[in-house]
């Protein structure tokens, strides 16, 4: 646990990267950690795009406000939520659970009904918003996994989502981009934050213990 805390203290949102390529096995472990992370209903209502092509990164740069990490990174992970949840997607998930656990799909009817009931209480847009929130669980997992691998990771929301979706053809895939995680190695000569102390609230200001709650 201490090693994990040391890694979390080491990491920061890197502003400049060297462009050096990451070992493929590190990237795969980070992506696999994201695949294994939690999501509501276990549905994983999003996809992760792995971008390493230099020309494509250059094309992404203008829609990402010319942030240098886009082209200085080794890889970009783009998190893209499903553009709405459908009954068909729920049915596919039920079949996946049944096949993976080698149980009859009929035994999951209660779980399926719960998901369908949830779906009926949402509009198309609100179900997308829910899916988008799930991507941030995955994004957080990616940040931690990168730190464990001694890889710098910069989470990014400062981009034109509609422009990125058009560039990557995400609408045709039923996806909408929500965030980007740039992976690479910090450039100690160019990054003004490389030696800056990490700024976080104190534990006393951040954590609210149940002993201090005025419960009803």
From TrEMBL:
CDD domains, A to Z: NfsB-like
Keyword flag Glycoprotein: no
Record's keyword terms, sorted: Flavoprotein, FMN, NADP, Oxidoreductase
Any one GO MF annotation of this record: oxidoreductase activity
Cofactor: FMN
Domain of life: Bacteria
UniProt cross-references to SUPFAM superfamilies, sorted A to Z: FMN-dependent nitroreductase-like
Nitroreductase domain residues: 10-185
Family, per entry: Belongs to the nitroreductase family.
Protein name in UniProt: NAD(P)H-dependent oxidoreductase
């Amino acid at each position: 646990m201490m090693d994990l805390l040391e890694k979390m203290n080491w990491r920061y949102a890197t502003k400049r990267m060297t462009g050096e390529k990451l070992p493929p096995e590190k990237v795969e472990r980070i992506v696999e950690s994201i695949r294994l992370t939690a999501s509501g209903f276990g549905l994983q209502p999003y996809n992760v795009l792995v971008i390493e092509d230099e020309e494509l990164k250059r094309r992404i740069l203008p829609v990402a406000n010319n942030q240098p990490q886009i082209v200085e990174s080794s890889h970009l992970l783009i998190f893209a939520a499903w553009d709405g949840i459908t009954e068909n997607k729920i049915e596919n998930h039920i079949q996946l659970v049944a096949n993976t656990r080698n149980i009859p799909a009929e035994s999951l009817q209660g779980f399926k009904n719960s998901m369908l009931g949830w779906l009926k209480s949402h509009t198309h847009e609100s179900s997308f918003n829910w899916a988008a929130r799930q991507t941030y669980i995955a994004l957080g997992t990616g940040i931690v996994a990168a730190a464990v691998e001694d890889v710098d990771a910069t989470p990014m929301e400062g981009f034109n989502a509609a422009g990125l979706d058009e560039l990557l053809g995400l609408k045709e895939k039923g996806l909408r981009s929500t965030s980007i995680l740039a992976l690479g190695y910090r450039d100690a000569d160019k990054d003004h934050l490389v030696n800056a102390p990490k700024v976080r609230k104190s534990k006393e200001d951040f954590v609210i213990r149940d002993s201090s709650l005025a419960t009803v």
